[in-house]
Specification:
This protein is mainly beta and 102 residues long. Helices cover 0% and strands 66% of the residues.
């Protein structure tokens, strides 16, 4: 059984006990989080929601809130002697999928 969940403007295909990195959620470490289900595959068949599958939920446990690796962006303007180096670390939330109900 697997489900397709939606969070942070992205979709993730998950099964139970998966660990995924999603866009930062405003929850504490150790808390449980419920995701809307866009599609669900079971032994009975495949269900696609419009936009979500009614009665289906995916529950996850927040393992960690953190930041990704630093990426560097260089800005340069020719003939102006203008250079700028900017770093960015994208925040994320690490979630373990506990159960899929549908």
């Amino acid at each position: 059984m697997f489900a397709v969940i939606t969070t942070g403007g992205k979709q993730y295909k998950v099964v139970e006990q998966d660990i995924i990195f999603v866009e930062k959620l405003d929850v504490e470490e150790g808390a449980e989080v419920t995701f809307p289900v866009a599609a669900l595959s079971t032994d009975a068949g495949f269900k696609v929601g419009t936009p979500v599958v009614e009665g289906a939920t995916v529950t996850g446990k927040v393992l960690k809130n953190g930041k990704g690796k630093k990426i560097y962006v260089l800005k340069y303007k020719a003939k102006k002697n203008e250079k700028k180096k900017i770093g960015h670390r994208q925040p994320y939330t690490k979630v373990q999928i506990v159960s899929i109900v549908g």
